[in-house]
């Protein structure tokens, strides 16, 4: 029996190479210092995902992001840091015994169709998150997709590379390639949210935000360093990131990058993110 929970400091020493192999991703080529993979985060035909065996860090050259093993598990499993630590601590990662993958795309999500959100189950899901269908339909799509031979549907937010963040009552998923999402109105100020429902919650709380600002959704805090180039295009940047450890570090990083950044998270002090706060506000108001 384990006496104490796995800490982030200990988890960072876990092997990135082993984690990838346990998740079914095997190197295309390998040397004593590095291993190269087809990216587990997006579709590609040439390996551009590198793991440094000396530093125990990974970097996806095609996406422009990298990090440690915790970041890696969060992105691949689409989970929180807490959930990633649980996975690593309990070795609850599905092992693959098939050796070198001959068809790396067979388990990827395939988008079948997109359209206006109209399925009653998605309406119920949006209602549970206190989001009006009209608001969701303005920025999102009803996405039908297949995964491992089964068909699903979800609320989807398209990203800059054509992939989708996919959410329904049962699954939190995404299609490749994974990237940030940007809603542009040619404004001089920018709002940055961490996730799909953070954006929808903010726009439900203050609909004029989208009229006065461009809106960027990170879709993962791992992309925070990738958006540095966007900061120079705006006079003011409002940060609505999560108040957990990862979100706070991302906020701190962006505040250091530009004096134009303003931390707006005190609005939902006491809550993990904007949607938790928004749900609570709507419950109070009945």
Task: Describe the model.
This protein has about 290 residues and is of the alpha+beta class. The chain has three domains: about 10-90, DNA Primase, Chain A (Alpha-Beta Complex); about 110-180; about 180-285, Dna Topoisomerase Vi A Subunit, Chain: A, domain 2 (3-Layer(aba) Sandwich). Helices cover about 30% and strands about 25% of the residues. Strands 1-2-3-4-5 form a five-stranded antiparallel sheet, with helices on one face. The chain has a five-stranded antiparallel sheet with strand order 6-7-8-9-10. It is globular and about 60 Å long. The model is unreliable at about 90-105 (pLDDT under 50).
Compose a concise summary of this entry.
With 286 residues, the chain is α+β, with helices and mostly antiparallel strands. It contains eleven helices and 15 strands.
Poorly predicted regions:
92-104
The gyration radius over C-alpha positions equals: 19 Å
**What is the chain-wise order of helices and strands?**
HHEEEEEHHEHHEEEEEEHHEHEHEH
How does the major sheet shape up? 5 strands, antiparallel
Q: What's the shape?
A: globular
Distance between the termini: 45 Å
Strand content: 15-25%
Task: Write the CATH fold name of the largest domain.
Answer: Dna Topoisomerase Vi A Subunit, Chain: A, domain 2
Strand order of the largest sheet: 1-2-3-4-5
Number of contiguous helices: 11
| CATH architecture grouping of the largest domain | 3-Layer(aba) Sandwich
Query: What do the pLDDT scores average to?
Result: 86
